[in-house]
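Friendly challenge for the regulars: who can give me the structure tokens for this chain first? No prize, just bragging rights.
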Amino acid sequence: MGIVSSERLRLREFGDGDLDALAAMVGDREQMTFYPRPRTRAEAAEWIDRARGCYATHGFGPWLIELLPDARFAGYCGPRPAQVDDVAEIEIGWHVHKDVWNRGIATEAATLALAAAARLGVARVVALVHPDHVGSRRVAENLGMRAERTTVLEDDYPAIVYAAALP
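First reply, four minutes later:
Bragging rights claimed.
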């Protein structure tokens, strides 16, 4: 069942059959250019378990992006609780499959996810973007987010903290 959809995308919860697609994406070195390293299949499975825990606990979490009409895996996007510089935040994240890069999928999926988060009562979101990831910086700016500061996350991952209030 979809959380929210548009003409070309549907966001839905991750399910039991989604591990192969996610593991292939996050295990690909090119796909993970702006991450500390590619992830293993076991790490992808743990990530899905954490996402499903978010759904159960918070009513939201990172959702799978399906490209319509064939429901093809296109990545993930959605809000999740996060600690950023010792502050409890709701992070909106997006990671689209390289097969659909430069087609506006991340911006469209994040717009859908922000609308869903607002309906669920989320008042503020942040996005954590690697300074060199120009595409993701553009997505954050297209969403109306503004850079607040820089920080360093685990694994010495540098990030610009973008933020926006939700209506």
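The chain has a mean pLDDT of 96. Strands lie at 2-5, 9-12, 63-67, 72-84, 87-96, 124-129, 146-153, 157-165. Your move, everyone else.
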